[in-house]
Amino acid sequence: MVIGSDLEAFYKTAKYPLVNECDMLPEMREEAVDICVTAIEKHQADLEKATQVIKEALDKKFGGPWNCVAGNYFSFEVTHECKTFLHVYIGGRIGVLTWKL
Asked: For the domain that residue 20 is a member of, what is the CATH number?
């Protein structure tokens, strides 16, 4: 059983965002996921810049203050305002966490 190659095959085929957890309304979730995907695709080599773009876009679209974390292999526990939490995987590897306090 070769798990590593199976995982690499999954990453290559993961062309859509995978929402892990979310308490947003469907319309807000779709817009937030689109913002996250666009930022990660544009700034994949610089995740710090991607999180800045995501935060600013969410602040502008839904009012601030939003928080954003992106990366590989992180865990979290956050307190958030109801209906403002999203954890999504983009490209199978990069996790993006957004929430509003």
From this structure: 3.30.740.10
